[in-house]
């Protein structure tokens, strides 16, 4: 154990292992609560990532389905591959 003098001339005891004191109960409780909240948020973020992945897969599936439908309709209408076309509000196909 050593005794050090700080800048404000107060003395403090430093144990051989470097310990200079204990945190107050209030500080320990506050830090424990913060740590628990951080862990909860990390868990929720992980769950959101898994949910996001599932949603992205479903979105991709829907895009592929829409493309197949549009490709089939373009073929039915005789629109050559690579030709730009659109669907009007009243459901008609229009070459652009």
Could you describe the 3D structure shown?
This protein is α+β, with helices and mostly antiparallel strands and 96 residues long. The protein has one domain. 55% of the residues lie in helices and 15% in strands. It has 1 helix and 4 strands, in the order ββαββ.
Gross geometry: rod-shaped
Regions with pLDDT < 50 over 5+ consecutive residues? Answer: none
Helix content: 55-70%
Order of helices and strands: EEHEE
Mean pLDDT: 91
End-to-end separation? 86 Å
Number of domain units: 1
Strand order of the largest sheet: 1-2
Structural class: alpha+beta
Main beta sheet: 2 strands, antiparallel
Please report the total strand number as a whole number.
Answer: 4
Strand content: 5-15%
Please give the radius of gyration in angstroms.
33 Å
List the helices and strands and how they pair.
Layout (H helix, E strand, L loop, with lengths): L1 E4 L5 E4 L10 H53 L7 E3 L5 E3 L1
Antiparallel strand pairs: 1-2, 3-4
Entry summary:
The chain has 96 residues and is an alpha+beta fold. Helices cover 55% and strands 15% of the residues.
Highlighted features:
single chain; 1 helix; alpha+beta; 4 strands; 15% strand; two-stranded antiparallel ribbon; 96 residues
């Amino acid at each position: 154990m050593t005794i050090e003098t700080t800048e404000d001339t107060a003395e403090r005891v430093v144990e051989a292992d470097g310990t200079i004191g204990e945190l107050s109960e209030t500080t320990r409780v506050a830090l424990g609560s913060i740590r628990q909240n951080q862990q909860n948020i990390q868990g929720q973020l992980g769950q959101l990532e898994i949910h996001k992945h599932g949603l992205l897969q479903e979105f991709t599936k829907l895009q592929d389905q829409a493309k197949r439908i549009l490709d089939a309709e373009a073929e039915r209408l005789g629109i050559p591959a690579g030709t730009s076309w659109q669907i009007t509000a009243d459901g008609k196909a229009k070459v652009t």
